[in-house]
Specification:
It is built from 11 helices and 8 strands. It folds into 2 domains: 14-243, TIM Barrel (Alpha-Beta Barrel); 245-274, no CATH class. α2 packs across α4 and α5 (102-114) crosses α6. It has 274 residues and is α/β, with parallel strands linked by helices. β6 (187-191), α9 (195-204) and β7 form a beta-alpha-beta unit.
Length: 274
Amino acid sequence: MSTHPDLDDRKVTTHRLLEMKQSGMKIAALTAYDATMAELLDNAGVDLLLVGDSVAMVVQGLDTTVTVTLENMLYHATLVRRGVKRALVVGDLPFMSYQINSDEALRNAGRMVKEAGVEAVKLEGGQVVCETVRRIVDVGIPVMGHLGLTPQSIHKFGTYQVRARDQEEADALRRDAESLEKAGAFSIVLEKVPAELAATVAKERSIPIIGIGAGPDCDGQILVSHDMLGLYTRFKPRFVRRYAKIAENMTGAFADYVADVRAGGFPSMDESYE
């Protein structure tokens, strides 16, 4: 049950997200990688939980998302699903799990739903992936798109800088968003694009547009939970607002524990057995 006073306890579905866009209610989304975190996020009223391939960086300690495997994603999605009652759970399809051909993409999307229990999958790209989106949607699996800065293409981009600042790329992004909607995508993530462009796309499209580093006028927002908690501190993108300093608190607690153990102050007799 949600602990947020302004939220009802209806299960969030793709249809519910569409209702939220139509009514002007902003969609709150965050990433999750395990059952404990997922339960906390769900209880706080988060609408959509993305089991992101960002797990490669914030959990596995890697430099990019491109090396995370489908088996990794299945494992973490299974954990997240166990902790959720209300939120819509979306699983990232990792790099090379959907690019080879639509048959393999459909098979892997099906595994995410059947084995891990996610309710939708997310993939990156525009018109080039629309055939794949159609095939996945046609069998009953909702698909979320992802445009702008697409981390799985970081070696192609060579940088994490803002995308679609020039008119040609901005026009291409708008065409990609239209194509994804026509292919059946239920929502699109826009990452690290100019706020004005994101606002335009949100107005043009009838499906929810979820921003990350895309300004305030999207239909909702998503962040990596470890970033907004101040738990992952290797870098802090401009678009991240840190709502806590968990890394500092944890480091202090660990240091206090070490000091107590070395001084013989832990455990006390009250924390021991006769």
